[in-house]
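Re-running the complex after MR caught last week's input typo. The corrected sequence lines follow. Everything else is unchanged.
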Amino acid sequence: MCDNCGCTLTISPAIKILDQQDKQALVNIQIFRENRIFSLNIMGSPGSGKTSLLEKTIELLGDRLKIGVIEGDLEESLDAERIRQKGVPAYQITTGSACHLDAFMVRHAMSHIPLSDLDIVFIENVGNLVCPAVYSLGVDCNVVVLSVTEGDDKPAKYPVMFRFAQVLVISKSDLLPYVDFDISKVISLARKVNPAIKVMELSIKNNIGMDGWINLLNYGVKGT
Amino acid sequence: MCDNCGCTLTISPAIKILDQQDKQALVNIQIFRENRIFSLNIMGSPGSGKTSLLEKTIELLGDRLKIGVIEGDLEESLDAERIRQKGVPAYQITTGSACHLDAFMVRHAMSHIPLSDLDIVFIENVGNLVCPAVYSLGVDCNVVVLSVTEGDDKPAKYPVMFRFAQVLVISKSDLLPYVDFDISKVISLARKVNPAIKVMELSIKNNIGMDGWINLLNYGVKGT
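Corrected-run output:
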């Protein structure tokens, strides 16, 4: 229903589809847990730095933990290739024009990576600050990556995502001197929609803040 | 159908909905043309600089052309407020969790701005490099704004959008010294999926490349 005038905008079949999705998400998390895997859904706008964060994480953690990656892209498999070059198993989901990953796509991809050998699975969602937040994939931790070049009003403009995520990674902090971006404002806006959200500020380029991220991953693995 | 293994992922009701959308889009363009309005759909990732581009355009053109703006946001009306502060009529569409504007939403918004008094209407879509490209709004010109901080691989990763747009605005070129972004690569990738796409490079901050953008708008208005 349109909030402005009452005209009908809602599409009811979507509700039924989401029900099925939620059931599949419960199956997925069960499989991850049976395999003692810490699973993360990495979301964010195109270019927010999701793949770069995964590459850096593999560099820092790859000799201590066994990492697997599921990549979501519309058509190309560029990201999975980047990850494989780091020596980590990666499976590419090609969504066509679909703007998000869903639990069924992830279940399919899970059968293409060696789950029983892994400690962590990262699922890099399609670059999109809206739709992925409506689809539970069945993971331990939903992460939204927001780069400092995207503007400090984003948690107010895209609240669904910031409500959905347990962790907010503020990326590309090396660019702070060149853009208008107030980190305290972002944190305040994010906490307004999600008081419990954990926030960390990173620069992969300048290797700032990576300790906190690595600690979170280690904690997640030990906790499973 | 999943390209990987043949499992079914397609949701058929969407096809019917898109048919209705296309019919409404034809109605919208007809109304814009009857009112001799040049209409543009401004798309791009969150934080690509869409609202800033509109603000700068109003500063440069507002005393010569009568501008109206339709804004799409999930919950807040921040962008419409920014535009109204420039003295231009702006109507906010609040989409809730919907990731794009559609032709019905735009038709509704059109009744809230003084069409008969306007020369140009800008429709700023929800920040999203995927979904808006599937929904025709019924405009003369679809524009995608890509900031140099988003990475130069985006036309390969999000080809649907770059195929849909007639104009690619490469924004925030003042940040080029601080990021890895090869403009010739972006243009080449964009033209691979859309050989006719018009490309312009802008910096609103440093006032670079605005002449080409203003010329395009003036040409659009004179041509209607």
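None of the earlier attempt is carried over here. Chain B has one domain: 13-223. Chain B touches chain A through 52 residues (CB under 8 Å).
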